[in-house]
Amino acid sequence: MFQSAQVAWGSGEVTSALSKLERVLELDRESPDKTSPDRSASYQTFYNQVRSEQETLKNSYAEARKDLANHMFPQALAVVNDCLAKFPGHACSRR
Q1: Alpha carbons 77 and 91: distance in angstroms, whole number
Q2: The model's pTM
Q3: Distance CA 10, CA 46 (A)
Q4: What is the pLDDT of residues 47-83, one digit of tens each?
Q5: Residues whose CB is less than 8 angstroms from the CB of residue 11 and which lie 6 or more positions away in sequence, other chains included
Q6: DSSP class of residue 32?
Q7: For the chain, where are the alpha helices, taking DSSP H only?
Q8: How far apart are the C-alpha atoms of 79 and 30, rounded to whole Å?
Q9: Engineered SS bond to 5: which of 20, 38, 75, 92, CB 3.0-4.6 Å?
Q10: How many whole angstroms separate alpha carbon 67 and alpha carbon 48?
């Protein structure tokens, strides 16, 4: 599951990566075998990174919508193009 999240992240599929990582963290918490705290820490670190990028995308989406509402089309397009360049597989790119 963790490797699947890494693949999704590498493809720019932020939402998919985040949902997989949430499941990984849930399974890790439920696991009776706590022999590898480093592994748990790396799961959490990667989750934090992906979650942060998702927040950035959400803020960019809000910024683009505001620009559109204010008829600032070039600025809105620039925000969208930046997001698509960084995360081509993100769900917003398929809308």
Answers
A1: 17
A2: 0.79
A3: 12
A4: 999 999 999 989 999 999 999 999 999 999 999 899 8
A5: 88, 89
A6: S
A7: 2-10, 14-30, 37-69, 73-86
A8: 40
A9: 20
A10: 29
79, 63 contact by CB (below 8 A): yes
* The pair of three-digit structure tokens given for residue 74, joined into one six-digit string: 């070039």
Write out the two tokens for 79.
Answer: 């925000």
1-47 pLDDT, tens per residue? 999 999 999 888 888 999 999 999 999 988 877 667 888 999 999 99
Phi-psi region of 16 (alpha: psi -120 to 50; beta: other; left: phi over 0): alpha
* Structure token pair of residue 25: 């963290």
Listed residue (57, 44, 58) closest to 83, CA to CA: 57
Q: Which two tokens stand for residue 43?
A: 């799961």
Pair 16, 24: CB distance under 8 Å? no
- What is the token pair recorded at 2? 């963790």
